[in-house]
């Protein structure tokens, strides 16, 4: 029995301050993010999707909403799909005056393989793959969409195909509103696909 679990990354977020928002409340989709969600919904509504589940965070719920409306289903919520925890939530990251340049934060950067600044990769992989397995069981013989976040999706993909979970964040293949699709024959993973139906929005 062929079942597909689509892991959909949320669309672009309204974040004028350019902070790492992580699990913080109140971060909604931007206007572009809303267009992304609509484009993905149109794409997926032509398939055999029977259910939509999302992270409890606002941006994920808003990304899930257009597809759920098209299908006439309610958006389910699975806390295992949530963004990873990170001690830098609410701070700016990156070059220039970013928080990583300040010595007070260096104590969190000692182990990039765990990582020491947030939720361990292995824990992310465990909760995400459990959510994928439950989604597969709920949609046997059909497709199901789970809306999540970049790091959890990429970590789940690496773990599912037997790659190490630690990685260079700059090399993640998980663009905004992209689909990482796990294909199963019964309970056996037979392939992982990736595409960007909202590219160019």
From TrEMBL:
Instruction: State which Enzyme Commission number(s) the record gives.
Output: 3.1.3.-
Pfam families noted in UniProt: His_Phos_1
The reply to whether Hydrolase figures as a keyword in the UniProt entry is yes
Q: Which GO terms describe its molecular function?
A: hydrolase activity
Question: Keyword Hydrolase, does the record have it?
Answer: yes
- Which keywords does this chain's UniProt record carry? Hydrolase
Q: SMART domains attached here? A: PGAM
Q: What class of enzyme is it?
A: hydrolase
Show the InterPro entries listed in the entry.
His_Pase_superF_clade-1 (IPR013078), His_PPase_superfam (IPR029033), PGM_Phosphatase (IPR050275)
Protein name per UniProt: Histidine phosphatase family protein
Its taxonomic placement starts with: Bacteria, Bacillati, Actinomycetota, Actinomycetes, Micrococcales
